[in-house]
Every structure is written in C-alpha cells, then in structure tokens.
C-alpha cells in the first residue's frame, strides 16, 4: 500500500511518474525470470555413479564388458567441438580429472547435439553413457572416452569463465582473486587442497593412535599479550576493550599441561600482523603440540619425526633421507620411525661455518673453506674470518668469456656485504685473485701464509667460480654473505654439486631428481643470545621461553654468546619447524 500527501498538482504528477517507473521495473524484473519448467528440470538429474579416477583404476573391467552405464558430473574443461555428425566435449569431474566425451548419431539424440552446441567452458553438466576404447598413438597407454547418451546443462557459466580459459590452462596462479572459485577448480589447486586434507587426517591418526595425544581446540579470542609480531585486535561491546586473535595457542596449551593433559595437539589457526613474504602470511595453520613430563628432547623429536616421515611417504609419495657420518644421503629406516630418531643432528655453529645458514639445503654438498691460516679480514673487525666457496665446474671455459649470473653480483640479494666473485677463465695464479683484495686493504696475509698450500687447498681450474667473503669468529649472521651466495648458486645451477646418495646396492650416485627426495636434519645447540650489530647489545636468538641447555647461575662471569639453549629445529630441505 502506497500513500501520498498531495501538496500540489506538480507533486502529484511527479509521484505518479515514479509509481509508473516502479511498476514498469517490476514488469521487467518478473519478465526476466527463466521458464519454470526448464528451471525445475535442472534440479532433476542423476547422481554420479563413478569418478574418472575409479574408472581409470579398473579400466579393463569397463572395456571388456559391453556398454556399462556410467554417469559423471562435473564442469566443461575445454571448448567443445560439435559438428552435425560428430561431437567432442571435455569433462572435468569433481576430483579434477579430465575425460573426453563423444557424441555420435548412433547413440546421441539430435536434441542433445543441439544442447551441446550451446556449451561454454566451466558449464556445470551431468553426462550419462558408456565407456569405449579411445584411439591413441602407438606406445601410449590404453585410453578411453565416454559415449554420450544423456546430457544436461545444470548451470551455465558466464563470460568471465570464457575470457579466463586460456589463463586457466597456462597460468592458473595468475587468475584474479575475484575469480577464486574458477581458480580452485583447476587440477593444481584441487590436488593441493585434497592433499592438505589427507595430510591433516593422517597427522591426527598418528598423534592419537601412535602416541596417545588428545586433540583440544583452543579459543580464537584472547586477551592481548605482547609477543613476537603485532596482533590483530577485535573490538568488543565495552568501550576501549579488545580481544586479540592468537599468534599461537601458547598460553592455552600451558594451561592444559598444568591441567593434567600431558600430551596435547591441534591443527591450529594463528594470526600475525607482520610484513608479507612468501613464507609469512597474516593467517596460517600450524601443527601445535605440547608434552609434559619430558626430560629428553629426543622424546619430542621422535613424535615429530613420526609425523614428518609418514606425511611425506604416504601423502607426498616421497622418500625421506638423512646425511650419514660420511656425508652421503641414506634412506631413513621407516621400521624405526616412531621409535628412534632417524634424521641426523647438526651443531648450530658448525652449520653456519660450513653452510652459512641454519637451514641449509643438504641435497647439495656445497660447503665453505676457511682461510684463517692464510688471511685475516681488515675491512671490519667484527668479521675477521676470510672464507671461500668454490663452484667446481660451473661453466665451460672453452666456449668463450663467461658472464657471471646477475644474482651473484646484485647487492639487493645480500642483506649486508656482497661476496667478491670471480669466474675462473684460465689457469691463473690462485693468489692473484686475493692480491686484488690485499691491494684494496680488504684482507691481509697472516704470518702462516703459504701460497703453495693455498693453491693446493683450492685447486682452482678453468670453469670454476670463486666467491670470497668474511664472517665472525663465532658466526651469528643468518645467513652469512656466503650462506646467501650458496642459496643463489643452488638456484642458478640446480643439477650441480648434488650430494651422493647411497643406492640399494650400496653404490653411490648423483643421478637423481632432487625434487623427488626429502632430506631432514636436526639443528641443535642454538646460542641463547646473539650480538646485535647495530647497537652493540645482545638479543635472544630463540624464543624467550627457551631455557639454557645447562644451568647457568652467573651470567656476568660468562660470555653470553657461548650459552646454548634447549631450542632445536627440524630442517626439511630448506624449511624448518621449531621445537622448544
């Protein structure tokens, strides 16, 4: 009911025109509704009887029997090719697998041909028919296609799907965020989310069945407490009062330990307001666990390794390896997983001295050579140790002058000092490269300098790349300049300097795909404190809650930089997880 207070004739005319427009708009709106019968028909379709994967795994069963009826539901994956006497369409089912649909006059009604001509990519469809062998090139595995007997378009896609089709097939990661639903339909993202789901299920089984943990979900709203990063605040109904989203369930799980839950875990949501990087997101999920009545770090490590080995093997389909005492890669003993530690332990200082970072990629055997007996750095007294990294056989010196990769000489890739890098083009005097640094007053020779020993130690050959830098006596930069150089070298030459792997027959081999193996190690004996270069003070290296490895009662009599903490990290390839 509409009512008007008529003030004048002009006002009455205006209001009547407005009412007319409202009525006209209403007519247009209702006339735009689709036909009732066709709309209801879209809700009447058969459920899927199979998935493409289930047919693939039993393909002989379907090909040996005549015309087993199959119904598949999914989306149109590619542009269809429909002719009067033959039609091809491409279906992607709910698991992200693809199959070709074949329409022929013998089995497909003319009305279905007409319907399939209207197909656009990403239409939601239901297809029924039977399986037949598909002609394939010699040498290829036997393939199949679905002969269409019944076909329904359940929901038509829009213009956006067609415009983004090329991007979907070539670079799905570049699909704009407003079309996330289209991006998540692509096989890569379908597989990723399903793998994540499978990993979460397996993790829960391992914690609960193998180690008697209790899964407890902690609240997401908590009192704001100072931690490492800034918090996301949630306003309340009380003036100037806020909740905080947790950076981790730290305080909750400590309460649980005091409450008699001696083994707790959860797949926890965490929130941190910090600078975005490839491995830093404002919202993320972590596997959070806590144990009480533990007097040995190996007790926690065994549980963590049980999760890591099983997830990589059963979900990721990859073997896990460790570095043995000889420096070779050996496969972890899965029979002992969950009973004893399988990954090797590396000392924090040794790792920084040898690899320049606390999470080195151990699939590469690149390491550094200390030249303390030959040189001392003069450029900065805080970094007196001269060290080198030699990339043996990095390039073919006989093919002409070699140009160093840009990443090696880009200052932006290094947080403080960029190493001095040379490509060895010919049999030059080894000392000549260092003489350039001596003349520039960057380094100086020691009293024990011996040129012949230096040449023998480095054994530089044409095709090698030499990188020279400095570090502290007890390194604390993470990474050191050479540590960053090592990372860049592995990226530039991913198939060189691979660490030998011990094969089943006991032989050594470097002929393997580094992406097919997982290498883990424990980094232990972290220092409790490190110097802060800018201020000359000392700061925590690890979590403030981590305690010293041994009782320390009088810090004034000790160098705080030599105190070790109980903190340790499990490094897997080039990532790490932390254990307190």
Automatic annotation (TrEMBL):
Single annotated GO MF: aspartate-tRNA ligase activity
Coiled-coil ranges from the UniProt annotation: none
Keywords, ordered alphabetically: Aminoacyl-tRNA synthetase, ATP-binding, Ligase, Nucleotide-binding, Protein biosynthesis
Xref: InterPro entries: Aa-tRNA-synt_II (IPR004364), aa-tRNA-synth_II (IPR006195), aa-tRNA-synth_II/BPL/LPL (IPR045864), Asp/Asn-tRNA-synth_IIb (IPR002312), GAD-like_sf (IPR004115), NA-bd_OB-fold (IPR012340), NA-bd_OB_tRNA (IPR004365)
Superkingdom as given in the UniProt entry: Eukaryota
Annotated ranges, domain Aminoacyl-transfer RNA synthetases class-II family profile: 193-432
Keyword Kinase in annotation: no
Pfam family, one: tRNA_anti-codon
PANTHER family (UniProt xref): ASPARTATE--TRNA LIGASE, MITOCHONDRIAL (PTHR22594:SF5), ASPARTYL/LYSYL-TRNA SYNTHETASE (PTHR22594)
Family per similarity comment: Belongs to the class-II aminoacyl-tRNA synthetase family. Type 1 subfamily.
Protein name in the entry: Aminoacyl-transfer RNA synthetases class-II family profile domain-containing protein
């Amino acid at each position: 009911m509409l009512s008007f207070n008529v003030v004048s004739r002009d006002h009455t005319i205006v209001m009547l025109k407005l009412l007319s427009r409202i009525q006209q708009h209403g007519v247009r709106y209702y006339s735009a509704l689709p036909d009732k019968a066709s709309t209801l028909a879209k809700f009447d379709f058969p459920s899927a009887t199979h998935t493409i994967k289930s047919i693939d795994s039993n393909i002989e069963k379907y090909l040996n029997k005549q015309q087993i009826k199959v119904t598949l539901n999914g989306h149109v994956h590619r542009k269809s090719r429909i002719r009067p006497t033959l039609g091809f369409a491409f279906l992607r089912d709910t698991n992200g697998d693809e199959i070709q649909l074949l329409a022929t006059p013998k089995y497909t009604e003319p009305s279905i041909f007409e319907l399939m001509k209207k197909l656009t990519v990403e239409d939601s469809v239901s297809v029924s028919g039977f399986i037949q062998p598909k002609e394939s090139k010699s040498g290829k595995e036997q393939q199949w296609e679905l002969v269409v007997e019944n076909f329904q378009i359940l929901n038509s896609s829009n213009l956006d799907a067609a415009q983004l089709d090329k991007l979907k097939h070539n670079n799905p990661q570049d699909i704009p965020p407003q079309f996330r639903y289209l991006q998540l339909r692509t096989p890569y993202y379908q597989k990723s989310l399903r793998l994540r789901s499978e990993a979460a299920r397996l993790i829960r089984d391992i914690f609960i069945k193998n180690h008697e943990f209790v899964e407890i979900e902690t609240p997401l709203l908590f009192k704001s407490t100072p931690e490492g990063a800034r918090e996301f605040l949630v306003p309340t109904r009380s003036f100037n009062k806020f909740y905080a989203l947790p950076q981790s369930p730290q305080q909750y799980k400590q309460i649980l330990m005091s409450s008699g839950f001696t083994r707790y875990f959860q797949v926890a949501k965490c929130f941190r307001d910090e600078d975005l990087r490839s491995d830093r997101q404002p919202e993320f999920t972590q596997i959070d666990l806590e144990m009480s009545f533990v007097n040995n770090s190996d007790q926690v490590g065994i549980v963590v390794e049980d999760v890591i080995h099983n997830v990589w093997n059963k979900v990721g389909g990859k073997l896990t390896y460790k570095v043995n005492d000889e420096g070779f890669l050996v496969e972890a003993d899965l029979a002992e997983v969950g009973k004893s530690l399988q990954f090797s332990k590396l000392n924090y200082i040794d790792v920084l001295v040898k690899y320049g970072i606390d999470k080195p990629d151990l699939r590469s055997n690149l390491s550094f050579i200390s030249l303390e007996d030959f040189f001392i750095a003069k450029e900065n007294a805080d970094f007196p140790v001269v060290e080198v990294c030699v990339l043996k056989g990095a390039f073919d010196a006989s093919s002409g002058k070699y140009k160093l990769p840009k990443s090696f000489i880009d200052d932006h890739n290094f947080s403080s000092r960029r190493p001095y890098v040379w490509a060895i083009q010919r049999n030059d005097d080894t000392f000549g490269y260092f003489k350039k640094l001596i003349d520039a007053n960057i380094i100086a020779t020691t009293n024990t300098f011996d040129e012949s020993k230096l040449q023998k130690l480095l054994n530089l050959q044409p095709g090698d790349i030499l990188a020279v830098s400095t570090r502290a006596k007890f390194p604390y930069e993470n990474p050191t300049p050479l540590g960053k150089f090592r990372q860049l070298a592995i990226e530039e030459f991913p198939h060189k300097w691979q660490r030998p792997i011990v094969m089943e027959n006991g032989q050594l081999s470097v002929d393997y795909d580094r992406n097919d193996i997982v290498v883990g190690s424990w980094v232990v004996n972290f220092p409790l404190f490190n110097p802060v270069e800018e201020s000359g003070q000392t700061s925590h290296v690890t979590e403030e809650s981590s305690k010293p490895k041994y009782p320390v009662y009088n810090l004034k009599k000790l160098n705080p930089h030599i105190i070790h903490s109980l903190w340790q990290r499990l490094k897997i390839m080039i990532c790490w997880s932390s254990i307190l």
